[in-house]
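Data availability (excerpt). The following record was deposited with the supplementary files.
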Amino acid sequence: MIQAHNHNGIDSPKLRSYNIIPTYQMTATELASYIARPAIEGEEFNVYNSTNGESCKYIYINGSWAKTLGMIGGKMYAKNAQAIADTTPVVINLTATSVSDGIIADTTNKRFEITTPGFYQIIGQVSYASPIANKSYNAYLYKNTTLLTRGTYHSSNTDSISCIAYDIVYLVSGDYIYLEAGQNSGSSINTRVGSDDTFLLINKL
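Predicted structure:
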């Protein structure tokens, strides 16, 4: 005997929906074309927009596409030691990226470029190798060409010293953030390298 099932809510706990959300990489033009096609209610997909570096999710709700953003931020760091001349601040050569999503990590210009407006937390660290004792060492955070904040440390040893600068700031698309180092030891001092020593980290709040 075949038993009939009533799906008006009585048997609903027996019903399951297994949905694997697809992920695509598209240019902005391809994405615009894709979401212009006919869609069904509840359809969703993840996308990496290769034009602006944005990662997000689209969900088709009530006859239109709704966009939700994923993680936006990244971390760049120095792979090679850099000589910081006395009393001459210089942009840190951030040539490696450990993570970057929804933002442009520009290793040519050594900076993060913003594609999504909002408040961002920014942390920059410069680690100096073999500093001269009783001298000052600095890390500077810049937005475009404007100084945001600095971290100034006074060394009491000759081992190493890490200078940290941090801020929370509102950024718009096209803004960029970079890290500078400066010191007043009386001679040139090299930076320490690696993602745990000299780096720039940014995260959208």
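Summary of structural features: The longest helix spans residues 28-35.
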